[in-house]
Structure formats: structure tokens, C-alpha cells
Amino acid sequence: MNRIIFLIALATLAISCSADSDSTTFNDQGTGQGGSLARFIIVEDYLYTVDEESLHVFDIHQAEAPVKVNSQYIGFGIETIYSFENTLFLGSQLGMYIYGLDDPTSPQLLSEANHLRSCDPVVSNYNYTFVSLHTNATCQGQLNQLEVYETSDLTHPVLLGTMPFERPIGMGIYQDYLILSDLDKIRFLDITNPRSIHVVYQITADTYDVIVRGHQLFAIGPEEIIQFDLDPAQISNTTMISRLTY
After folding, report:
1. How many helices (H) and strands (E) does the chain have?
2. Domain contains 221
3. What is 74-96 written as a DSSP string?
4. How many domains does the chain have?
5. Contact, 219 vs 186, CB < 8 A?
6. Which of 4, 16, 44, 238 has the fewest CB atoms nearer than 10 Å to its CB?
């Protein structure tokens, strides 16, 4: 766990440095950006964190003196947290939870979608939400697939379909593409029609999470962070521009 936190910190630093020369922002709602495996996220003046069972809220209006304002029990095996606009998406070993932030100090449960036991990162563009299910020693199970939900009505997510992969883990959304870490490949899926998504390009790299920032991609692996430039006109023109080995 400490290693993962360290890698997230490295990736965040790389993104911050890159942002100095790129005014394009990826998420206008939040001030903190992590990958789909993140266990904490900042949305405006609040920090949201998850442990194995609960969601915790911290007021960071005064960054030097954060104040814990709420904790809510969610359920078993909570693993990840992701935000889009005014919504939190939580991934767990047994399902996905969607929370609204009309009151940022007290997130409201809007809906949940259950699945068989597996590890469960989540990303969303509001209308559609993507859940990667994979297995390991902790999560057990035998699922390695991508689930696609329609979430235009956040109170009633509808499963549109599933797609098998080798070991899908981290994800990021870039325009009409879902970028997926799948074993030793970074796969680019065309999600123009979420009912019929398909792989259009892939890069060989051992990674487990990705972070998209503007037209840049940061791919995080067990031994390195790789930075790519993304070409919105032709995704197959994605170019590696740096590599940090640790």
C-alpha cells in the first residue's frame, strides 16, 4: 500500500509539472486528480477518502488545518474513489456505489450496482460508467472483464454489456476513448457507441493504472511511470515523451 501511495504521489508531481506548460484541464470540477485506483480525491474544498468500509470527508478550506466533518459506512471491500462533476463513484469488491454531492459535507447515496466478487476500479463521463473487474489474491473470484453502464439517470444505472480482457485494472477517459491497463498492454477502446465498444489501438507496456491530463497520458507500472502525448486526430499517433524508472 505504501508503494502505491508513493507512485501516485510521483504521478501527481509529474502531472503538476506538465500542467505548468499546458493550460488544458481535464477535470474542471476537482482540484485533485488521481488514477482510477485512487483511494482519495479532492473536489473543490473537500477531500474524500475511502477505507475498506467507509467514506470520510475533510473540509480543506484552510489547507494547513483540514477538519474531518463526516464519515459514512458504505459496505464491504471498498477499494477506489473517482469523481466527475458533482458525483462520486466508489468501486468495491462486490459492486459500484454512486454518491451525489449536493451537500459536499454529507454525500448522498444515489444508487449501487452489484457484481460477483472481484476488484473494481470505476471511471465515468456521467452518461456512461465503466467498471473493470479483475482478480487477484485479495479479491479472489474469476472475473476479468469490462462492464459498461448507462448512468444518465444516476439513480438507476443500467448494464449495457460486458467485454472480456486478460486482467483489466486502471482506466482513464480521453474524448471518445477509454484507455485501459490490461496486463502487459495499454488498450485504447472506441466508446463512441457504448453498446459496441472495441479496441482500436494498443501499446505494449506493463502498467496497472493510467491518468489522463489534457492531451497527455501518464501510465503507472510496477517499475516505471511513462508519459505519452495523445493525438486527438489520430489516436494511433500516441507518442512516448518520457519515462521515469524507480
Report:
1. 1, 20
2. no
3. --TTEEEEEEETTEEEEEESSEE
4. 1
5. yes
6. 16
